[in-house]
Each structure stands twice: as C-alpha cells, then as structure tokens.
Amino acid sequence: MKICIVGAGAVGGLMAAKFALAGEDVTVIDRGAHLTAIKDKGIRLESADGTVQTAILKATDTAAQAGKHDFVVLAVKAHHLDQVAADVDCLLETNTAIITIQNGLPWWYFQKLGGPYEGRMLSTLDPGGILAEKIDVDRVVGCVVYPAAALRAPGVVRHISGDRFNVGELDGTETARVRKLRELFTKVGFKSRILTDIRSEIWFKAWGTLCFNPISALTHATLREICKLPETRQMAATMMKEAQAISDKLGITLQSTMIGKRIEGAETIGHKTSMLQDVEAGRCLEIEAIIGSVLEVAEFTHTTAPTLEAVYALVKLLNNAILAQGALQFCDRPSEPINPSHT
C-alpha cells in the first residue's frame, strides 16, 4: 500500500513510522531540520514502554516529488491545510482517498450531512474557500485520533499513550476503502472501528480538546493539574456543557453524565496538550479548529456559550503575542524562502 503522510510531526510521525515498520510503502512530506533528520536516519519511534524502533522511509518537501499514492493522510495542523491543498493533486490517483486527522471540527463537517445545514461552509476553517475548491469531498474519509505523541527532537517521535484511530465515510456508508483503512490500522498495531456516524465521535473528541487545550495553553498546566484544581476542573465542565448545548442543536447527543468520566480520563492521562506544546515551541495555535469553529456553529444555531467565548478571546490574544514574538525573532535572522509546497 502506498501511503503519503503530509506533516510527519507528532501523530503524523507516529503513523508514518508504524506503517513503514509494518512494511508499507510510506512517503512523508515535511521540511526543515525534521525533514533532514528523517532523510538521514529515518524516524526514531520511542514507545511508552521504553521500546525504540527506527523506521526508514522516503521523505521530501514537495508533493510533486512525493508522487501518487493510495492513501494520503493530511496530518498538518488545520491552519496549514490551505498550503497543502494547493498541491494535493500531485499526490492523487483516480481512487486515492484522503484521510483528515486534525483536532476539533473539520472543514467538511456539513458536507454529505443532509438536513438543514447540508453543505454549509465553516468560514473559521476555510476562510478563502481553498479547501472546498481544491480537495474533492468525495475523496475524504474522516478519522478520529486518540493517541497522544510528541516530537522530542528532529526525527524523534515519542508515543505517549493511546492507540485508537476510528474511521468513517462522511455519508455513513461502509465502503471498501474504509474497510481497507481499518485493516491497515489494525495491521500495524493500532485499534480501529468503522463508524457510521463519524460526526458524533468528532464531537466526543472535541468535547475534551475545546476545554483542555485552551486552558492548558493559558496556564501552562498539564491535564492532571487542570483536573486536580477545583476551579479549572469546573471551568472545563462548564465549557463542555456549553458545547453539549451546541451539539444538541445539530442532533448530536452527548450525555451529561459523561462529562465527569471525560474529565477523569483526562486526569488519568495527565500529559501536556498539543496546544501547550505549541505554546512552548512558539508555534501558531490551533484556535479556530478547536474552539473558533464551535463558536461559529453556536452563532448560527443561536446557542449561547459565554465561557467558550471568554476563553476563546484569551487564547486568541495569547496566540497574537506568540506570533508577534516570532515576527520579532524572525527580523533578527536572515530571511528564508518559503516553498508553497511546504506543509
């Protein structure tokens, strides 16, 4: 199976390494020191049990050099997808499927949904419409990612916890390609189920990320620390209740009794969120995918979400400060050309 992973960071790198170690034909698209390290030595995969493996695979910085594939995994952050979309055609055969693994709500959420919101575009996720224009929604397969991973150094990925990659067609059908994808995940040692309602699972995953990620970014606290302090534990629960009211308007039922279990699960895992890792690295934050898109849905479904709005405003201000600091640092070093094919 020919698989292209666009963005071989934490989770993308985990997937690429596991697929390659299982004998699949894998190419990754990335850039900078990470790409150089992968080209030189492959991806070093460090597992939570102490096992270390090295996956040797192909790596490049452009879609044109990567060639055609059976599956293309878009593993970049949501705010980089427009850069990927411009060249995605270079990776596609007639029947190539595109798997999306971004946090939060996906840009295609209302495509093939049916009902009153069928076809509605989320401007927070695709403000220029390039994703809708360049990525054929008929190729897209949804995927809800549960593993936690971290990029420890260029070419080094640590698998922290979790092993589930649940998949589903946007229209809920069980197709040959989604069965093949599930088989691929299970073959390499992950757990995977085919979902007939991928959107409910997306909301369940988003239920945690929309509260824990922003709170951790603002406070530099781990999941365990957030859940142990009564005030931040209650804030997370309040944000989840507001999100539940929004999902109810879309016909997605999230049981209130699950809020406590979701928080307890986060406390048990205890690690740093991906947004906190981005803060510490000085990277742009996934604000719109994780919380902004949810508030956009709240607006057109006429649902109040005051706590989500307040936290969104604060984390957006934090992101502006990170970007401003990055711009100042950039002015102090020689400019670098930006390849539009970079992910």
* CATH homologous superfamily caption of the largest domain: NAD(P)-binding Rossmann-like Domain
SSE order, one letter for each helix or strand: EHEHEEEHEHEHEEEEHHHHHHHH
Structural class: alpha/beta
CATH topology of the largest domain: Rossmann fold
Give the fraction of residues assigned to helices. Answer: 40-55%
Under the CATH scheme, the architecture of the largest domain is: 3-Layer(aba) Sandwich
**How many runs of DSSP E, i.e. beta strands?**
11
Which descriptors would you attach to this protein?
disordered C terminus, 11 strands, 343 residues, four-stranded mixed beta sheet, 2 domains
How would you sum up this structure in a few lines?
45% of the residues lie in helices and 17% in strands.
Molecular structure report:
- With 343 residues, this protein is of the alpha/beta class.
- The chain folds into 2 domains: 195 residues, 3-Layer(aba) Sandwich (Rossmann fold); 131 residues, Orthogonal Bundle (N-(1-d-carboxylethyl)-l-norvaline Dehydrogenase, domain 2), CATH 1.10.1040.
- The protein contains 13 helices and 11 strands.
- It has a 7-stranded mixed sheet. Strands 4-3-10-9 form a 4-stranded mixed sheet.
- Helix 7 crosses helix 13 and helix 12 packs antiparallel against helix 13.
- The longest helix is centred in the last third of the chain and has 26 residues.
